Amino acid sequence: MADPARDIEDAYPLTRLQSGMFFHSQQDAGRSTYHDLSSLRVTGPFRAEALTSVLAALGAAHEVLRSGVDLTTFSEPMQLVRASAAIPLTVEDLTGLAEAERDARVARWRAEETARGFDLSRAPLLRVHVQRLTDQEFWLHLSFHHAILDGWSLSLFTSRLLAEYDAALGGATPRVPRPGTRFRDYVLLERKALADESARDYWAALLADTDSCDPPRWPDEAGDEGRSAALHPVPLPAHAARGVREVADRAGVPPKAVMFAVHVAVLARLTGQRRVVTGRIANSRPETEDGDRMVGLFLNVVPLVVETGGADWLELARRVHRAETEALPFRRYPLSQMLRDAGRETPFGTLVDYREMRSYGKLAHRRIAVADADFFEQTNFGLSANYGADVTSGELRLRLNHDTSTYSAARVAEIGAHYADAFAALIEDPEAPVGDAFAAQDAALARALADWSDTATALPAERTLPGLLAARADGVADRVAVRSGPHALTYRRLHASVDALAGRLRERGIGPGAVVGVHLPRSPALLVALLAVMRAGGAYLPLDPEYPAERLAYTLADSGAALVLADTERPVAGDATPVLRLGPEPWPAAPAPPDLPPVAPEDLAYVIYTSGSTGRPKGVQIPHEALVNLLLSMSDEVGLTAGDRWLALTSLSFDIAGLEVFAPLLAGAELVLSPDGAADGGRVLEELRNSGATIVQATPSSWRLLLEAGLGEEPGVRGICGGEALPAALADQLAGRLGALWNAYGPTETTIWSCLDRIRVGEAVTIGRPLANTGVRVLDERLRPVPVGVPGELYLAGEGLARGYRGRPGLTSGRFVADPSGEAGRRVFRTGDTVRWRPDGRLEFLGRSDDQVKIRGYRIELGEIETVLGEHPAVDQAVVVTRRDERGGDRLVAYLVGDERGEATRAPAALRAFAAGRLPAHMLPSAFVALEAFPLTPNGKVDRRALPDPGREHVGAGPFVAPLTETERLLARLWAEELGLDRVGTADTFRDLGGHSIAALRIALRVREATGVEVPIAGLLTGGTVASLAAGIDGGGRFEGSVLVPLRERGGRTPYFLVHPLGGSVFCYAALTEALPEDQPVYAFQVADLAGGEGPESIEAMAGLYLRELRAVQPHGPYRLGGWCLGGVVAYEMARRLADEGERIEILAVVSSSIEDPVPPEYAVDESAAVLGAFGDHLPITREELRAVEPELRLPHVLALARGDLARPDVGGERDLARLVRVFQRHARAVLAYRDTARAPYPGALLVVRAADEEYGSAHLGWAGRVSGPLVLLDSPGRHSGVMTAAHAGELAARLRAVEASGRAGLDRFGASEWSDGE
């Protein structure tokens, strides 16, 4: 047997870029990352022997075409050059097919080929496939790994291949000269660059102050769960190439600099950043005589950093060219080393490239010509702008290559429109400012903003609170206006008392402009005092008796209060302000209203003090017209009527109290003034239930107290939440319990609330849209509107603006500024809050601008991380801060307050995994510190300076645990060797020890060599420990587990047990679990094949297996069972058996589960039918077409088609798909056999939930006669395939909650009916 080592001609290390490409392609196994495919449609004869001889000559000349890769044998990854390695050539004859079928076969082969990987150890990493169309036409496909050919090399290779093939057809022998320069010479150049300190210093300085500059995307954009590539051709203006050349000539730069300038300008536009950083491809070929004739990967990805401010197109092109020129001496310094030097991750997710390839269509050949061309590639960048010349026409072409898991097709089309606008603008006027290039996009943005901000609403002629209340009082005189404990006042009595006290205040000289402190406990007397001050023309100043005396004294002195209203019991801080003491009944009803002056809309209604950044509270002055606008707008938004009761909980020193004490009075409703405020959740909950309140406003903290006190479903109560950021988990809990919930946002300076959003379970929590007569601006640093998705500072305008800060003209002028829109005399308030527009016109709150930090070059909003952590079901509150590490750098630390068990907050690795699914790597905290409660400042805010430092126990790596088994010792040794550590324990995780991508790949390959078991790279990078991976290896590569999956374990309610549908996965129940209350436990049964076993063959056996697992969690009833699709049938059989054993079934619900027509019978016997059924018959191929695919290629072909929205989350590769089809067919056989077997009916009630948009054979889905109890029929929105999705799961959850709360009667409002045999 020949020794393969003797065939090795040379060996040398990989370049850094090759290493990175090989890693990403291995990590994305089964996908197309860095698998390139170039296709040419050639006219002329095809001769296989001629093409074979040409390929042999090319392979002999270029060593990269004879090279494979060894990643593990040597101390570093090596490429091994073979003395010979034939380039594989396969031929497919399509000459007998119709044109449409030929085109379909070509497209199908391309899709299948890009899903086929390369064995990196086998040379060459290139294969050629020919598809003959006619005797004089064929497709020539070159399929290769990008790590062996760059774009210029592909052009050289293809041009030479075509020329030699043309000559060979004429009888010539192919001759391709072998370059004298070797690829190892290029590797040596890179090694020299790595040792160049000047290169290191250059790139370190350039990256020192760069921010990530990627176009925004939305988490709910439709995109693949896995990576896949898509191309978007950008339609450029006619003769764009000529226009670019003319601009380049005027600027004195190459045309490429003009093209790159467009890319830079678009990024500046889409991100709002003046200093743009993106990746660019640098050509690093050896500068030898024959260097330009070599083929290989002679590239480096380097940062392109350009300042765009104040530039026109000519200047921007010069800046781009200057940036490229300055970097030229350092272009071979690898990107991976730049990032290691800077201690950061890649600062860009975009790439720009220009490929000056040859125009194959213009090459002169005697016997062949290129008629068409296509090219496919997928990188690890989210978005690449690829410039080049059309291979047939030579015209300029721009294609946006995008990762569909990062940007949807619709989003990339929007981005492409910006490129098209930029090209049109620069060709029309190269001297125009770059920022003016997007006129069409600016106009579209202006139209959208105008539409979203159109809040103009007519106000009544009377715009003061006393005037409106007086007009309202006549119609509700004898109704209760305010109630507090045992005390109550009717509207008649309230207004008489107000008038009487207002008269006394007038006698004291109180009138417009005067400030009166109100120092009273919560009681009807407090309300009388507030209204009396305003009735007299003054402005009230709330003084909470519970506040520190020093603060109250400062507030009185700073405000210049003329008088203080106080009770007879409490002392008033300070002695400089006169005090009017009020007894329990200090206001005898006046025989006639006193003669009081009218109050003007611009007069002050109140002055309220808020904390200041300097430590001195500042007084915000609110006029009547601002208060009235807020009250009328909010009353309209929440539907406030005279029939409502508003439970007021908030301290009067918090400005939001103004809404809850005055809005009910304007509506003629009843105000229930809680004597104790919101401090005691149990007492507030009791008051809520006893008072019959229909609306409550509270902060998130107060709502959380109510939940902890036992707040249940209160469909008759509407809630308003504001004052601080509303966590998503809390929002879902409240929205699922209350009749309606709104999230309110607004600074004190714009009168309580400025924006409002209706919150629904499972939807994003935003601050919504502006209230009536409220203007919204989201502006960048230059006070220009930012595009949708780009963070900016929020400015507010309109009727709600305060007059300013009392006695602080400098502070007022700094925060209340001229409207940048240019309207004369109009002011806007600078909030200091960072927000962004969503595509639907709602505003997303990102945090305070002063909460913005910079970590490893990324500018990060801490509030965004806190929001994500707050979505974890076991996290009640989260605070994220920066801490200085041992090396002097900053790191992120998360502090968490969890539920009463605190299990999740004690598991840093689990929290990191949760956050990693929602945040980019640079935003992941390095430590997670669980606290019983946060330390607070005197005003109740989190005292961030008092948070404790994290310890080792707060990161993923815990105490050292020595390896015990042989496999654990093997893994620990490999990890230690690759990561340069002295020891590794069984509880350590790869990431926490500093593991990186290439090390993960090397370890996975070394483990496979040592054990024969494939260890998934993801298992290393996503939290696998030495112990867990060793257990999987010792189990033959299977990771045994239970068929019962806890989707949510916490909570005291009776659990739901849900059974998988056809195929066996339980991913489908995720949205329903989220839509159910947070304290509702949910378990789901997955097929045994997913837990490392082999699933049962019958429904009866499934039911038996699942019942054994169920009883381990809940030994006895009452039970709640259900399932969608096949799961409904299995749940029914489980319920039958439990009923036979005397157990009580509280709920049995089958969702879109037909027993009369459960599956098409062909699913059981036809693989193609089963495959298409597993994907909901949504794949773009018919059953007949799929059957025509060769059996061994059928599943790879399906994987190539099942991308984007069509992909299944439980299918990551061919092995997963084969398992899914096997299980799908087994389930189909089982349910058909169960349907056709007679058995005793289930004795209880069965709830049949039909998908409202689906058509069934009968109304009862075949369940009539299979139950002896009530058969309840109910519709829920969606089709069969959509009823469980996030769009509709909330409706299904609402129906389940209704039947939990009220039984069968609770479903009447959903149109439920009972089936009877007579129907």
Shape: globular
What is the rounded distance between the termini? 80 Å
CATH architecture of the domain at 187-430: 2-Layer Sandwich
Instruction: State the CATH superfamily name of the domain at 187-430.
Output: Nonribosomal peptide synthetase, condensation domain
Structural class: alpha/beta
Strand content: 15-25%
State the low-pLDDT regions, or none. Answer: 219-225, 885-889, 952-957
Give helix % range.
Answer: 25-40%
Work out the number of β strands: 48
What is the helix tally?
A: 36
* Largest sheet composition: 9 strands, mixed
Side by side, the strands of the main sheet go: 16-15-24-23-25-26-27-28-29
CATH topology of the domain at 187-430: Chloramphenicol Acetyltransferase
- What's the Cα radius of gyration? 36 Å
CATH level 1 class label of the domain at 187-430: Alpha Beta
Mean pLDDT: 84
Pfam family, one: Thioesterase
Cofactor: pantetheine 4'-phosphate
Domain Carrier: 962-1037
Organism: Streptomyces zhaozhouensis
Summarize this structure briefly.
34% of the residues lie in helices and 21% in strands. By secondary structure, it is an alpha/beta fold. The strands form 10 sheets. It has a 9-stranded mixed beta sheet with strand order 16-15-24-23-25-26-27-28-29, sandwiched between helices. An 8-stranded mixed beta sheet has the order 41-43-42-44-45-46-47-48, with helices on both faces. The protein has a 6-stranded mixed beta sheet with strand order 8-14-13-11-9-10.
